[in-house]
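Exam revision sheet. Question 4 asks you to relate a sequence to its structure. Input first:
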Amino acid sequence: MNYEESLMVKAAWYYYFENMTQQAIADRLSISRMRVIKLLETARQTGVIQFRLRSDGVGIVEQSQRLINKYHLKDVFLIPEVDQDEAHPNESIARAGAMYIADRLGENACINVGYGDTLSRTLNHLATMVQSPVTCISLTGGVSNYLPNTRSNVFNARLFLMPAPLLASSPEMAAAMREETSVSEIIRMSELSAFTLVGIGPITESATVFRTGVLGPTDMFYLKMNNAVGDVLCHFLDRDGNLIPTPIEDRLISTPLDRLKEMSNVIGLAAGADKIEAIRAVLRGGYLDILITDETTANLLLKDD
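Answer key, structure tokens:
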């Protein structure tokens, strides 16, 4: 993709998906408003803009291939820089994730969905995009995280949820819940899915597991003292992607990491400077096949550690 095409894709994304004005786009890209108008018109004429932004228009850039090579991925889907100062910075990545899946989801296909704010938003977007209901299977406990947004007018999804909390009160209780038929059946169903969506969380107060009070400040301090840099499916990892054994892990109701590695088309959705260490750890651990992120995050991931 040359510079002009890249500029056109950015302008189209900001205008149609971020609801930015033409003048705001001009200011963001340091070009004139008239040029923005011409870029948008070209995007419409060439088919880059249809009902949704064509994924090969956004994702095929040099950064994508470099990330694929560096981390041995099947695919990378990049969007323009996400504004971390907006009310919900996860929203752009969630929309991109829903677009990516909607373009590739076959009839009667199932998808696995992990825990977190980005994944919850992705599920809501996907369920309003598809024409026929999509079957979604939860990868963790914590039922409320998977329920549809009440603002969704159309929700074409069949949800199969793990009937358990994300974190049990004791290791013994967690072990008993994992053996429950209703839980083990959901785990077996997840083996049939065509795609698996997971979020990546940092060890900060903004991470869903801390923001919602599932884990507290003491837990955060403990994890940092044990060299945790982030989590996937609420399994906490060190900088090399190794699982950190903690009392939290013993109480967790979540798909094990070794099972995650066996799943097909595991897609990680995450962006932001605060998540760089966490994303790197998940990539180093080999848990992902596909990464959906933004250009700024991609640049940081490509820098030497």
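Marking note for examiners. The first strand starts at residue 75 and ends at 79.
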